[in-house]
Design brief:
311 residues; globular; 11 helices
Length: 311
């Protein structure tokens, strides 16, 4: 059990797919709010998106993260569980079957999982956000005469995930796919610490002594609470990340993380970094609950027991 296995991949895809389907509409609202495109509040954003783009507007950019979530979840859950297994085997006096209670082990495994995840999730998030932010026709925000703009028509900047990917590579190079990488690291490394640690500790606390493993209710509750905590505390850097990745759809405003923080603070004050915090926490609960429940129940079906993402 020291290496990645097929059931980890499949369980990760199932959990991840469930979380994307449940959480993507609220993620679209969160992204629109954070990127600063003129919505007064969450309800105004929801009403405006629905009025202008119908229900399908909430699902913009979902196909790409849905297709790639299998690999990302396999990496995150696989790296976390295998790192925990390694640490417990080599740096603990407890037998392998013991619960992973060592906080230092949880912290290190979560950080490693966060770093590995960023390598894949940065391009995925970039494409998702670029597609979500298509609120105006392609010709708007572009230089040129009225005739030239008219010739471009009303087509959107990106016609889908693949077109978005190739356009970014063509216009910004491969490095363009990693726009916002620093902000992603600053968000995801501590974010995964506040994701896995509360989840594992809450599961241990909620599970009666002597039980073979956490019940589905425990998994659902612990996963939901962990997701709300993680996304709520990650909001300031998530705002910066969203703005950096949305930058470039029509114009380019930011030179990097510090410039984005500086401009955002100067124009909108400290409160801008907490924009979308409420919806992030609300979205984080059902997304993470679905993620962990799908993962755990899949592993139970594959292995015949509960394997919290731990040895």
């Amino acid at each position: 059990m020291g290496t990645f296995q097929l059931d980890d991949f499949v369980a990760g895809w199932i959990g991840g797919a469930a979380s994307v389907i449940i959480g993507h509409p609220l993620d679209t609202v969160k992204t629109r709010l954070q990127a600063g495109v003129g919505y007064r509040n969450t309800l105004d954003c929801i009403r405006t998106v629905y009025r202008r783009e119908s229900i399908f507007g909430f699902f913009k950019g979902m196909s790409f993260p849905l297709a790639s979530i299998a690999i990302n979840n396999c990496l995150v859950f696989g790296v976390f569980s295998n790192t925990m297994r390694f640490l417990n085997q080599h740096y603990s006096d407890k037998p392998e079957a013991s619960p992973p209670t060592a906080l230092s082990h949880l912290l290190l495994a979560s950080m490693v999982a966060g770093v590995v995840s960023v390598g894949l999730s940065t391009p995925v998030d970039l494409i998702k956000i670029r597609l979500q932010m298509q609120t105006r026709p392609f010709r708007e925000g572009r230089p040129g005469s009225p005739a030239q703009k008219a010739a471009l028509g009303e087509r959107p900047a990106y016609q889908g995930p693949v077109h978005c990917l190739t356009t970014i590579v063509r216009t910004e190079g491969l490095a363009g796919l990693y726009r916002g990488l620093s902000a992603m690291l600053l968000r995801d490394v501590p974010g995964y610490c506040l994701y896995f640690i509360p989840y594992v500790l809450l599961n241990e606390w909620l599970t009666p002594e002597g039980s073979a493993g956490p019940s589905p209710y425990c998994v659902w509750l612990a996963g939901g609470v962990a997701g709300a905590i993680s996304w709520g505390t990650a909001t300031p850097m998530d705002v910066v990340k969203s703005r950096l990745q949305a930058d470039g759809v029509y114009t380019t405003k930011y030179k990097g993380v510090l410039d984005c923080i500086s401009q955002s603070y100067r124009k909108e004050g400290l409160k801008v970094f907490f924009r979308g915090a409420t919806i992030s926490m609300v979205r984080g609960f059902p997304m993470s609950a679905a993620m962990f429940l799908g993962y755990e129940l899949s592993l139970k079906a594959f292995r015949g027991d509960y394997g919290v993402p731990s040895p």
